[in-house]
Backbone:
């Protein structure tokens, strides 16, 4: 397919899913973002912004709704209004088709047990892990390519030496020219991790800078300021995309937080300050019940279902309460 026609096809498919109520929350947010961006780009159309919105939706609905008696709906006519929206996108509205002109950033979010793969305006792709978010500024790729991450994501970055790609979280910034890498930066976890699968990145922490090449990983602890760089099988850092839970040097509290992100459970953990032991164990597509059963034998925790919650006591907490 000719590359210049691919955005139009993607937009038509997205609009069809939107009207059929089959769009994901993230896709719906993108369409809503386009509509909300019309205010500065409708001078060539008659009527107000809301009328234009309704006319576009009415035109697309004609394509997806059943025809009434004696009425035939033309495919070309049905997409005429969709084409209007595509033209607007081509002039600078659509964040995912052309570089946007909206002042508002675009935000991607995932809920419990969800992952999301999206293409950024520069052609790079990002996959968000559960309970993660990515903020894409409105001026992305005009002067620089910078995004804000909370949680965990895998990036496959399109090379553009003139516009370095930067990922920032609350404690560090990772800069790349063109590579694939994974960043784990969940709030509440003591260690941030950057793993390079291919290419090279630069990671900046307060007062320090590190250069990582493929098969290298940086672990950084914001509270202590400690950071260490090492060689590792970094390909395993993306295993979460295949429903793998990798508890690599995790405390009990960090494991329980991860379970809450990936499963529809609410956990109340009772622990003691002395519960700082770290564990290494991997699970692949296991139920939360099976995982907790294994962790009982490994860590000595006890589990008590109560009012829709899972009350979990560490071994040291249970001993103190006797």
Residues:
């Amino acid at each position: 397919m000719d590359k210049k026609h691919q955005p139009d096809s993607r937009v038509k498919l997205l609009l069809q899913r939107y009207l059929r109520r089959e769009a994901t929350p993230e896709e719906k947010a993108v369409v809503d973002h386009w509509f909300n961006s019309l205010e500065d780009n409708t001078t060539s159309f008659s009527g107000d912004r809301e009328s234009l919105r309704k006319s576009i939706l009415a035109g697309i609905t004609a394509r997806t709704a059943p025809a009434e008696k004696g009425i035939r709906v033309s495919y070309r006519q049905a997409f005429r209004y969709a084409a209007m929206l595509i033209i607007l996108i081509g002039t600078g509205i659509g964040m995912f088709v052309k570089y946007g002109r909206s002042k508002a950033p675009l935000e991607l979010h995932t809920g419990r047990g969800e992952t999301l793969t999206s293409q950024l305006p520069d052609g790079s792709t990002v996959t968000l892990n559960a309970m993660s978010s990515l903020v894409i500024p409105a001026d992305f790729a005009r002067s620089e390519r910078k995004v804000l991450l909370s949680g965990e994501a895998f990036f496959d970055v399109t090379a553009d030496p003139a516009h370095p790609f930067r990922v920032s979280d609350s404690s560090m910034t990772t800069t790349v020219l063109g590579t694939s890498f994974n960043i784990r930066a969940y709030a509440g976890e003591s260690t941030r991790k950057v793993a390079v699968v291919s290419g090279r990145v630069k990671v900046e922490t307060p007062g320090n800078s590190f250069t990582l090449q493929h098969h290298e990983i940086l672990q950084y602890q914001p509270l202590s300021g400690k950071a260490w760089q090492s060689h590792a099988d970094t390909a395993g850092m993306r295993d979460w995309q295949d429903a793998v839970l990798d508890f690599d040097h995790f405390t009990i509290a960090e494991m329980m937080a991860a379970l809450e992100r990936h499963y529809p459970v609410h956990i109340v953990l009772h622990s003691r300050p002395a519960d700082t032991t770290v564990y290494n164990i991997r699970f692949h597509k296991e139920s939360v019940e099976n995982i907790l059963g294994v962790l009982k034998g490994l860590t000595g925790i006890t589990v008590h279902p109560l009012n829709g919650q899972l009350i979990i006591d560490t071994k040291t907490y249970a001993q103190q309460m006797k």
